[in-house]
Amino acid sequence: MFNQKQLNILVIGNESCSKFDAVNIGNIGDKVYTIDINKKNSVYGFNPINKKDGYHVIGSALELDRYFEPNYFDIILLNGVFGWGINSIEDQRKTIEVIYKVSKKDSKLLIGWNVN
């Protein structure tokens, strides 16, 4: 799966505690997209300084299919969002469903969960 030249990567949730996620994930030439519902967190999202293509979206993870094509992402990082913004079981379920829609068949999903 990861022999292709370019990966499409999505980082969901951008805050100061995860500010290096979008910078460090992937390789030069990959497309890295970030999304956060809070406009002030844009500073922690995608930054072209890391020689990767992509952009930042100000929006809800519950509406990923509004911003991205179906079957697009190879890797999705969902870090620090469940319990810190997407709180209800129903919204968490909806988030996983929409992640499935925008993910390729053999994609990878990494969920970071913090109970503190």
From TrEMBL:
Domain of life: Bacteria
SUPFAM superfamilies the UniProt entry points to: S-adenosyl-L-methionine-dependent methyltransferases
CDD domains to which the protein is assigned, alphabetical: AdoMet_MTases (cd02440)
InterPro entries: SAM-dependent_MTases_sf (IPR029063)
Name of the protein described by the UniProt record: Methyltransferase type 11 domain-containing protein
